[in-house]
Every structure is written in C-alpha cells, then in structure tokens.
Amino acid sequence: MSEHVIAEPHNDKYAEKLNKLRAGVLGANDGIVSVAATVVGVAGATGDSWPILIAGSAAVIGGALSMALGEYVSVSSQKDSQEALIAKEVLELEQMPEAELEELTDIYRSRGLSHDTARHVAVELTERNALLAHLDAELGIDPENIPSPWAAAWASALAFLLGSLLPMLAILLPPPEWRIPVTFVAVLVALAITGTLGARLGGTPHVGRAAARVVIGGALALGATFLIGSMLGVTAA
Fold first, then answer.
1. Is 150 within a domain?
2. 64-79 b/e (C-beta count within 10 Å ≥ 16 → b)
C-alpha cells in the first residue's frame, strides 16, 4: 500500500508532463494546418510571392496571438479556481480542524484502509502539513505546481510558430510551379508525424487511425482552400 501512495505523485507529474508535450504537438499541428490552408488558398489565386507572404505572415501572427490568448484565458480560469479552493480549505482548517480530520480519515477509509489505519494516516499527515494533506486527498491540487497563465501562453504561441514555419518555407522557397505540390507533400508528411506523436502521447491505442484522421483533415482543408483560391483567381482574371 505504501509503495502505491509513494508512486502516485510521480505518475501524476509524469502524466502532466506528457499532457504538456502533447499540447505542444497539437499547437504545432494547428500552426501547420491553419497557415498552410491560408498560403495554399492565396497561391491558388495568384503566383505572386508578395501576396502569399503577406497573407501567410498575417496568419502566423494572428494564429499565434489567438493561441496565446486562448491559453492564457483558459489557464487563468483554472488558476483562479484552484486558488479559490486552496483559500476555502485554509479557512475550513482554521474554523473546524476536527471535522476536517474526520473528513480526511473518511477519504482514506474509502480508499480501502481500515478505520484505525486511516485515522493514523490522517493524524500523521495533518501533523506534518494539514493543508497539503487535504489538498492532495480531497482536491488533487499541488500548491507548488499551479500552472502559470503566461508560461502556458508563451508555450502555446511558440508551438504554433514552430508549426507555421513549415508551410511558409514550403510555399515560398520552391519555384512557382512547384509551390503547391511541395507544400501539400510537406504538410501531409508533417501532419502524419504530429498526428502519430499526439496519439502516442495521448495513449491512444489506434495510433494509425488517429494519425490518418489528422492527415485526411489537413488534406481536405488544403484542397478546399486551394479550390476556393483558384476559383477566386479565375474570377478576378
């Protein structure tokens, strides 16, 4: 039983790191798809590099800022919620310590310990650090590991920027007649890689199926924007 209790926080932290890494992979995936769809659509309408560069740059900057803002708001809400729960727990420990001790005992009893053992564990943990004991047992919160909204925002923006580099280079570096096929191939290969990584990090048993969904979705997005761009280019001409 003691080995299980000791190993659990380590597993939680390891899982949290995997989730962050997976979020980074998905952020890069968003950068690949959204920017690629933009530049392919513009390239379908014109062979001039300048409009493609302007539209692609706008998609990169706008997408990165949007990702950062969304992550900042989301993590800020999570942080505020956790801090409110911590403050509530502090108040309850000050006002009704005996009731809190009994509550902690009941939690460990519900996990399979006998009443005497659960009481002993609750008393010992309370004497060591009552707040940490309750935050861990009741809420699963580590006050030393509350996420930073700014760190999450920067990480999200950086992941998007890294992903967006591929379609920008693929569309701008080749000769005009090779731009579209090179971008399609580069993006779909990259999506296959990020889809596989995301599925593995997420623990999905059907990795190939998950990666295929990402590749098919990306291909449809590129095909749709290229078709629309081509139609608008012909209309303008």
1. yes
2. beebbeebbeebbeee
* pLDDT tens profile 25-84: 888 899 999 999 999 999 998 889 999 999 999 999 999 999 999 889 988 998 899 889
Residue 125, amino acid:
L
Residues sharing a CB contact under 8 Å with residue 113, sequence separation 6 or more, in sequence order: 1, 121
For residue 11, is it within any domain?
no
What six digits make up the tokens of 154? Answer: 């920067």
pTM equals 0.78
Structural domain boundaries enclosing 196: 17-236
Between vectors from CA 192 to CA 190 and to CA 198, what angle results, nearest 5°? 100
CA dist 102 and 84 (Å) reads 22
Could you tell me if residue 6 is inside a domain? no
DSSP state of 23: H
Q: Please state the domain count of the chain.
A: 1
Asked if the structure places residue 224 within a domain, the reply is yes
**Per-position b or e across 140-152, b if 16+ CB within 10 A of its CB:** ebeeeeebebeeb
